[in-house]
Inverse folding.
């Protein structure tokens, strides 16, 4: 199927370590106080392609309260957990260094106005944050490996909510919620980037809530296999999953509701990829388009019954629900 998309308006390892805790002034003063603190890093552990991701486990803990503190902390070298308190208002995309966990504190931690670049680095976790009103993407991942994006919310980006591209690999995207988003999650940015992307772009998407998003849930180029399982697609506008340009996507155990086009082959001017669908649940939705074969999934996982995915995902996906 070849089609052109319509546009509409609108957390890693549980680790206990004795480490230095760096608190950047609670009032945004820029002063730092260091104490020895036993602390818990990001909640849970990733499954799927990003399972080896540890982020800042065992490193320094840094509490941040404004944009300058946030930027300084996430760009600092060495293992660290950056704890976001309240709203961080960014005026441009901020690059993140390797071996970093960015963790929202409580239920109101937010990155607003722009987003973050995980570029040419390894081993990054982003958990329990709301990304809102970005002038670009919420999160952009490129030339990066071992990344876990978990329990975040994305709303009203100018471009994509979460874009993964340019030879990135071994990534897990889990328990996130996207709403008021048109171009949601792109995987592979260009039909002409086969030389970099073939053999890479292996991503697991599980237990995400695509809440009225319009397209790219995800839109996939080259990655094979890409595993899309146990997600809830709720009133998706244009289409759910698209497999293009020699990609191989397994769409498994998902709940599709009020979604006319759950999944298909090809998109816009991009050639067809392969897509295998099994054990999905459909409510007032189309049946989707499949074709070709997909490489085997190289890790073990526990698949929930598709009929129960709606209740579990709506109860737990998104920021503030860890």
């Amino acid at each position: 199927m070849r089609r052109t998309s319509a546009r509409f308006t609108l957390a890693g390892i549980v680790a206990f370590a004795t480490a230095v805790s760096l608190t950047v002034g609670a009032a945004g003063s820029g002063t730092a106080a260091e104490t020895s603190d036993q602390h818990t890093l990001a909640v849970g552990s990733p499954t799927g392609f990003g399972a080896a991701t540890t982020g800042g486990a065992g490193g320094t803990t840094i509490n941040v309260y404004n944009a300058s503190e946030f930027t300084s902390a996430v760009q600092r070298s060495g293992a660290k957990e950056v704890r976001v308190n309240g709203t961080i208002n960014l005026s441009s995309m901020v690059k993140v260094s390797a071996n970093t966990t960015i963790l929202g504190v409580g239920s109101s931690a937010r990155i607003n106005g722009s987003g973050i670049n995980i570029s040419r680095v390894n081993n990054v976790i982003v958990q329990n944050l709301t990304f809102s009103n970005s002038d670009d993407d919420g999160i952009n991942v490129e030339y990066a490996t071992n990344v876990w994006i978990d329990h975040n919310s994305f709303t009203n980006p100018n471009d994509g909510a979460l874009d993964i591209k340019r030879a990135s690999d071994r990534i897990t995207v889990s328990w996130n919620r996207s709403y008021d988003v048109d171009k949601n999650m792109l995987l592979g940015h260009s039909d002409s980037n086969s030389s970099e992307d073939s053999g890479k772009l292996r991503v697991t998407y599980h237990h995400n809530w695509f809440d009225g998003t319009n397209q790219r849930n995800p839109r996939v180029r080259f990655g094979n296999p890409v595993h899309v399982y146990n997600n809830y697609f709720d009133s998706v506008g244009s289409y759910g999953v698209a497999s293009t340009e020699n990609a191989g996507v397994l769409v498994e155990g998902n709940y599709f509701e009020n979604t006319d086009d759950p999944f298909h082959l090809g998109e816009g001017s991009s050639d067809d990829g392969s897509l295998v669908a099994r054990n999905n649940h459909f409510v007032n939705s189309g049946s989707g388009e499949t074709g070709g074969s997909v490489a085997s999934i190289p890790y073990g996982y526990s698949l929930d019954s598709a009929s129960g995915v709606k209740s579990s995902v709506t109860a737990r996906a998104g920021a503030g629900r860890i």
In short: The first strand starts at residue 16 and ends at 24. Helices lie at 67-74, 194-197, 309-316. The first helix runs from residue 67 to 74.
